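re: the backbone from monday

yeah here it is again, tokenized this time
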């Protein structure tokens, strides 16, 4: 007998639900990542904003998941200020992203 699908599994077959879920999930991941990095480095919103040459409200909106479209350049700047390098990998290829 086949296992009955959960509500979530059934909903994920709906293209509109799936698109919305994936977008919101990615926003949550970015928010959680930034919070973890800032906590690890013990860096404040204002200090990070100043170092990354961004407005504190941009950092705060990303942290709260309210910044809908985060510019790649802004994200790279934020991560670099926290000591991280962003790298795209495909097979043996590695591309280092920087501002």
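seq for it, each position gets an aa:
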């Amino acid at each position: 007998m086949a296992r009955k699908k959960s509500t979530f599994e059934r909903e994920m077959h709906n293209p509109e639900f799936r698109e919305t879920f994936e977008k919101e999930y990615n926003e949550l991941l970015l928010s959680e990542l930034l919070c973890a990095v800032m906590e690890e480095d013990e860096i404040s919103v204002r200090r990070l904003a100043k170092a990354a040459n961004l407005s504190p409200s941009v950092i705060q909106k990303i942290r709260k998941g309210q910044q809908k479209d985060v510019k790649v350049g802004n994200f790279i700047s934020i991560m670099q200020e926290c000591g991280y390098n962003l790298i795209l990998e495909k097979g043996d290829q590695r591309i280092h992203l920087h501002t």
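The chain has one domain: 9-97. Residues 15-41 form the longest helix (27 residues).
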